Amino acid sequence: MAAPLLEVRDLRVEFPSRRGTLTALDGISFAIAPGEVLGMVGESGAGKSMTGAAVIGLLEPPGRIAGGEIRLAGERIDNLPYERLRRLRGKRIGAIFQDPLTTLNPLYSVGRQLSETMLTHLPISPAEARRRAIGWLEQVGIPAAARRIDSYPHEFSGGMRQRVVIALALCAEPDLVIADEPTTALDVSIQAQVIALLKRLAREQGTAMLLITHDMGVIAETADRVAVMYAGRIVEIGPVRDVVKAPRHPYSAGLMAAIPPLAARIERLAQIEGAMPRLAAIPPGCAFNPRCPQVFARCRDARPVLRPAGASQAACWLYDDPAGGGVHG
Amino acid sequence: MTAFILARLLQAVPVVLTVALISFLMFTYVGDPVAIMLGQDFTEQQRTQLIHELGLDQPILMQFARFVGNALRGEFGLSYRLSRPVAELIAERAPATLELAGCAALFALALGLPMGVYTGLYRNSWLSRVFLTFSLIGVSLPTFLIGILLILVFSVWLGWLPSFGRGDTVQLGWWSTGLLTLSGLKALVLPSITLGLFQLTLIMRLVRAEMLEVLRTDYIKFARARGLTDRAINFGHALKNTLVPVITIAGLQLGGIIAFAIVTETVFQWPGMGLLFIQSVGVADIPVMAAYLLLIALVFVAINLIVDLLYYAVDPRLRIGRGGH
Amino acid sequence: MLARALDSDIWHSFRGSPITMVSAVVALICIAGAMLAPWLAPSDPFDLASLSLGDAFKPPRWSDGGDPAFPLGSDGQGRDVLSAIMYGGRVSLLVGFAAVLLSTLLGLGLGLLAGYVGGALDAVLMRIADIQLTFPGFLIALLIDGVVRAVLPAEVHDRIALLVVICAIGISAWPSIARTVRGSTLVERNKEYVLAARIIGVPAWRIMLSHVLPNVLGPVLVIATLNLSGAILAEATLSFLGVGMPPTQPSLGTLIRIGNDFLLSGEWWITLFPGAALVALVLSVNLLGDWLRDALNPRLR
User: Fold this and answer.
1) How many C-beta atoms surround the C-beta of residue A253 within 10 A?
2) Subunits with at least 3 CB pairs below 8 A relative to chain C?
3) Residue A262, pLDDT above cutoff 60
4) CA–CA separation, B164 and B166 (whole Å)
C-alpha cells in the first residue's frame, strides 16, 4: 500500500458527563490511501459518524479526542489550533451529510453557497467562482445549471439537493471526502444514481473517500476496503470482497447474512439476536459476546484486538492463533 | 408581489372593521353626545335638529357607514373636553409620540440584537450572565417604575437630564420635532430608554433563543464542515436565519411600543397622543378615545404589513413563482 | 397524606431550586403582610383622626430626621408609608386574584364552549380572541375602564372602582386561557370515550365537565399563575395612570402615583418603597409561575 493519505491510530473519543466519562470510540485505527474508498459499516450508534466527525474536528461538545492521533498526508491534524483546522476543512477534507433537506441553508441560493465555499479556500475572483459553480452544477448532473445557479435549495428535489451537497463538498478540490450516509435520506430510486455519481467524481478527481453507511449493498458496490464497527470499535477491516464473501468476525457474518439478496426471495432476513449495548453498559470482554453465536469463556474475560484473519483483520478470539484462521467450536 | 400585499391587506380588513365597529358603538351609545353638545338650555326643536344633523335618527347601518366614511376623511367630531376637532388634536400630538416611539424602537433594536447574538454565541461567558440577569429585571419591572427610577437617578440626584416635557421643538411644516435642538434630544433620552427597555430585553432573549436553535441545525454544521470562517457562519448564516422568526415577534412588539407610550408619556408628561388618550379616558372624552383606538388599530395593521414584507425579503421560500422545479 | 405530598416529584423539584424557595418565601411575606395588615401595620392609614400634618414628609427611620414611628417614612399627609404599603398590597392582591379568577372562569367557559360546539360560535370566539391578542392587555383594560367611566357618573364609578378594575383586567386576559382550553377540548372531543358518552345520551355539559375539564386543569393553572403577576402589574399600571383605584382606596399603583408627585422635590421614599414592594411581589410570583410550568411539564426538563 502506498503512503496513506489519512491515517488514524488508536483514536479514542470520550464524553465527560455528570455520571462519569463515557468512552464512545476506543482503539480506532485505519488508513486510507490516496484515491481509495474505505467503507465503514455498523448499526446506528456504533460510532461511524463520530469517527467521521473526529477526523474533521467537528465532534459535538462535550465530546473530545482523548487519545491516539490522526494524520493527513503525514501531518498530525487532531491537535491543530482551531483556525488551522478550519482552513483544512472544505479545502483538504470535504464532507457530505445525510439529509440534503437540512444541510443547505434555505436563505441562500445554491450558487452563493458554492461561491462562498470556493472563495474561502481558493485564490480566485468572484466571477471565476461563479463560473466554476456553474461548472460544478453541470458536473453533478443538474440540468440547465446556468439558469439554476441562482435558485434556492427549496426549489430543488431531494436528490438534486444531494447533488448540490456533493458539489459543495468537492468544489474546493479536497484530497479526502467524508460521506456520512450520503444516500440514506434519498428515495430508493435515486440512491443508485447518487452513489454512481459520487464514485465517478471521486475517481475523476482522484479523491479518497470515507464512506459511512449502514447499507452493506452500497459498500459492496462502491468501496475498496471496508471497516465494520461495533460499539465504538472496529471489529473487522479488510478488502471489500473478502469481508462480504468471507466475513471473519461473527458480527460481520451476521451483518452479511442480513443483506437481502437481490435475486432470491426469502421469507425473512437473518437477524442477529439482541441489540447493541448502550455506551454506558458495554459488557466486559468482547462487546459482542452477549449476542455472539460462537461465544466461549475467553470472550467474557478479555477484549480482543485486531489480528490478521485471512486477507482481513478481525478483533475476535477465534483468530488468536496467528497461523490459524480455522473456526473453533 | 402586488398580489401578496393585496392578500395581506384583505386579511387586515376584518380587524380594522371590528375595531371601527367598537369605536362606533362607543361613539354612538356610550354617554349622550346630544346632551353633552347641547349643554343645559335647549328646546325640543334644537334637540331634534341636532339629532338629525348628527344622523342619529338614521338606521344603524347607515350611521356606521357614515362613521366609517367620516373616519376615512379623518373626521371624528369635537373633543368633549377641549371642544376642538379630534383630528386636529391628534395631528398636533402625533409627532411627539412618533419620535418617542421611533427612538425607543431604535434603542431596543440597536442594543437588543447584538446582545442577543452575543449571549447566543457565548452563552457561558460572564458578560452573557450579566445580560441575562439584567433582562430578567427588565421583564419584571413595570414600565412606569423604570421611568421613575431613571428620573430619580438622572434628574433628581445627578441633575443630568430633564424629567419631563420635550424640551425645545422646531416646527417643520405641521410636524414639530425635538430632534434638532440639544434640549429636545436630551429630553428624549430617559423616555426612550423607559419605553424601549422592555422591548430590548424581549428582543435579546428572543434572538438568543433563536440563535441557539439555529446553531444546532445541520446547515450550520455543514457550513463548518465546508471550512467557512466563524464570521461568515455566525453573521452570514446563523444570524440571517435567526432573523426570520425574530422579525415577526419583534415587529409585533414594536407595535406594542405605541400602546405602552401611554404609560411613558404619563411618567414624563410627554405631550403626545398617549397622554391625550389617558386624559380623555379620565373624563370619558369618547370622540378622542374612539379616534385613538382606530389609529392604534391602523398602526398595528401597518406594522403587520411591514413585517410580512420584511419576511418576504428575507425568506426566499415565500417568493413562489420564481424558477421552476 | 402529608408524607406522600412531601415525597412527590413537585416537592423535590421545589427543594432543588433555591430561587424558587426564595421566591416562595418572598411571596408568602407579601401575601401575609397584606392579609394581616389590620393587625400588623404600625398604624391605620385610613383613620383620618390619627393623621397629623405635623408628621408629613418624615424620611425613613434610619436617615437624618427619621422617626421610629414611621419605619419607612411618611407621605404628604403624615401617613405611615409602611402601613400604606401593607393596606395597598391588600388591594393589589385582591384585584390580582379576583381578575385572574374571572379571566380563568371566562377562558375555561368560552374555551370549552368554542372547542365543544365548534362551527360558527368557535369561529366568532376565536376571531375575537385573535383581535384582542393583537393589542397589549392593559390597553384593553384601559378601554373597558374608559367606557364604564363614560356610562357611570364619577361618584358611582369611584365607589365601584374595585369591581370595574377587576372586570376590566379579567376580561382583557381571557383569550390565552380560552385558546389552551379550546385546543385540549378539540383533542378530547374526538376521543372514543366522549363519543361513547354522547351515544348513551350523557348531556354535553356533563361530558365537558367530567372528561375534558380534568385534562386542561394543569396548563390552566400554569397560565393562571403567570397571569397573576400580569394582572397585578396591569392594575398597578392603570392606577398609576390615574384610571384604576382611586386615592380613597389606594393600591400599590395608586401609592406610586401619589408618591411620584413628590419625586422631584426629593421625597423619594414615598414612591420608591411601594415600587419595591410591587417588584418583589411580581418577581416572586413570576418565578413561582415559571417553576410551576417546568415542574408540571416534565417534557421541558
Assistant:
1) 20
2) B
3) no
4) 7
Burial of C119 (0-12, 13-18, 19+ CB in 10 A): exposed
Chain B residues touching residue A91 (CB < 8 angstroms): 227
Instruction: Tell me how long chain C is.
Output: 301
Distance from CA of A196 to the nearest CA of B (A): 22
Whole-angstrom Cα distance, residue B319 to residue C24?
Answer: 51
Read off the pLDDT of each residue in C131-160 and give the average, rounded to a whole number.
78
A172 and B316 in contact by Cβ < 8 A?
Answer: no
State in Å, rounded, how far the first CA of chain B is from the last one. Answer: 20
Q: Going by C-beta distance under 8 Å and a sequence separation of 6 or more, which residues neighbour residue B261?
A: B97, B100, B101, B104, B195, B270, B272, B273, B274
Rounded CA gap, C39 and B126, in Å?
46
Please list, in sequence order, all residues whose beta carbon lies within 8 angstroms of the beta carbon of residue C73, skipping any fewer than 6 positions away: C57, C58, C59, C60, C61, C66, C81, C267, C269, C270, C273
- Percent of chain A surpassing pLDDT 70: 93
pLDDT at residue C66, as a whole number:
65
Question: Chain A residue closest to B236 (CA)?
Answer: A108
Mean pLDDT of chain C: 79
| C49, HSE (Cβ side, Cα atoms, 13 Å) | 0
Q: In angstroms, rounded to a whole number, what is the distance separating the alpha carbons of residues C89 and C30? A: 8
Closest CA to C263 of B163, B192, B143, B167: B163
d(CA B42, nearest CA chain C) in Å: 22
Give the per-residue pLDDT at C299.
45
Structural domains of chain C, ranges and CATH numbers in brackets = 2-300 (1.10.3720.10)
pLDDT computed for residue C294 by the predictor: 74
Taking each helix axis from N to C end, the angle separating B239-267 and B86-121, rounded to the nearest 10 degrees, works out to: 140
Report the sign of the C-alpha dihedral through residues B206, B207, B210, B213, in that order. Answer: negative
The per-residue pLDDT for A178 is: 93
- Test B219 with A106 for CB contact under 8 angstroms: yes
Domains of chain B as residue ranges with CATH: 12-69 (no CATH), 92-324 (1.10.3720.10)
Residues B293 and B12: their CA atoms lie apart, in Å, by 15
Contacts of B314 in chain A (CB under 8 A): 107
Q: What was the pLDDT predicted at C141?
A: 84
